[in-house]
Amino acid sequence: MEELTKKQRAILDYMKAHVSEHSYWPSIRDIQAKFRFASTNAVFGHLQALERKGVLQRIPGAARAYKIVPEVLGDTSETVIRYEGPGDDAIAFENVKFAGSIAAGFPDYTESSGVLDSLQVPLSPSSRRRAPESFALRVRGDSMIDADINDGDTVIVEPGTPKHGDIVAALIDGETTLKRLIKQGSKVYLKAENQNYPDLIPTTSLTIQGIAKSVMKRI
Amino acid sequence: MEELTKKQRAILDYMKAHVSEHSYWPSIRDIQAKFRFASTNAVFGHLQALERKGVLQRIPGAARAYKIVPEVLGDTSETVIRYEGPGDDAIAFENVKFAGSIAAGFPDYTESSGVLDSLQVPLSPSSRRRAPESFALRVRGDSMIDADINDGDTVIVEPGTPKHGDIVAALIDGETTLKRLIKQGSKVYLKAENQNYPDLIPTTSLTIQGIAKSVMKRI
DNA sequence: ATGTTCTATGAAAACTTGTTCACTGTCAAG
DNA sequence: CTTGACAGTGAACAAGTTTTCATAGAACAT
């Protein structure tokens, strides 16, 4: 892939950051202001370059409408590599149902209408059996970014009584959110693990769907 | 909170779905087309209602710019934590199944070679069995630490032809190791993702057991 | 020397989009 | 019966936004 220039990279990063923080894309003028360009056309050119280089997709005519094209490593040479498959010691799988997506900071929104897929989750050798009610949730948004749980990750949620400090899947306004549970005396708070988000969300009535015990990331 | 009307709910859902699918918000006219309104003002009214009811935040003057506002419950007194299970649809809650009966004979991973040099994954290359499927491997060692794959993690390995840049489970000297595959022309190298380890390991013959597609971490 | 790419300015055109105004109809509650 | 919330039509406006056009210097390879 063609390399991005420094400015192009900076602009792309800013756009990503903006979307992540505000949940909508910046306008060309937003970018212009951020980088102190005197003309919108400076930004326009960079956006064109970003699209030409294949890392950004613009929707012609539409305002604040873009898509990020995931960057991948190139190269397609062929090498003979033999596949052998797993040996006897591979860890067994367990089926865990997908309960939907989870709202963290930004675009959740797929929401839990219906079970999507069943996820193959490795059964960890330590806990030989997972609680039968475990389920998987795909994480959307960045509110738990400081806990290293990012957009696109999948968390395995298990039932149980959460302790102080546990990361829980909690039902707020019909949407499942992932937050850290904070107990202070008799009060209970939910805390997002992202410096950009408000510290504590006070709660009176709280529906906990389970405790996030592990997180699964695409490599 | 105030209840949403059916149409309001439908519009909100559509907006969420749109953002989830396209990564940008729909315009008022997009919504109008979707619901076959004759006037944009029909949508406008609903959006106002959604904002008034506190589930949607509009950014005045900005196009395709919204935020979903998770309702913050009021504070005071006692906090009740109720366990409910995975979501509003009972489907996810009930349909958890165990895939295999394979859960019987686990290998013991507590002790393997105590070498930290490379990622030591005990995978005995014995009888190949059934169709190539994904399998999980417990990671030992820190050779992939820069790729955020750490000791104790579990990687999900899938069969397939690895590309340049893929992280593969490769058989080296009778042991399965996790490394990044580097192709340079016709040559193939394995690279540990740890600054403290030698950069490239040249290979002549290579047995790939699969491509590490995701990693699972205990929280 | 010369052309090309990258970067940028400045202005204006063209289109998209949110917003407002005037008006109609339904339906349940008081 | 009236009132008020809800849902909608139709048109038009104003602002927001992208896009185009004309112009030009700096860096760089041919």
Task: Describe what is shown at a glance.
2 copies of one chain form a homodimer. Chain A has 219 residues and is α+β, with helices and mostly antiparallel strands.
Structural commentary:
The structure is a homodimer of 219-residue chains. Chain A has 219 residues and is an alpha+beta fold. Chain A folds into two domains: 6-68, Winged helix-like DNA-binding domain superfamily/Winged helix DNA-binding domain (Arc Repressor Mutant, subunit A), CATH 1.10.10.10; 93-216, Umud Fragment, subunit A (Ribbon), CATH 2.10.109. The first copy, chain A, is built from three helices and twelve strands; from the N terminus they run H-H-H-E-E-E-E-E-E-E-E-E-E-E-E. Chain A has helices at 6-22, 28-35, 40-52; strands at 56-58, 66-68, 82-83, 93-103, 118-122, 135-140, 154-158, 167-172, 175-184, 187-191, 200-203, 205-218. In chain A, the strands form two sheets. In chain A, strands 5-4-6-7-12-8-9-10-11 form a nine-stranded mixed β-sheet, with no helix packed on it. In chain A, strand 1 and strand 2 (66-68) form a beta hairpin. The radius of gyration of chain A is 21 Å and the shape is elongated. In chain A, 40% of the residues are buried. Chains A and B meet through strand 2, strand 3, strand 4, strand 5 and strand 6 of A and helix 1, strand 2, strand 3, helix 4 and strand 4 of B. Chain B binds a DNA duplex (30 and 30 nucleotides) through residues 5, 7, 27-29, 37-42, 44-47, 49, 58, 60-64.
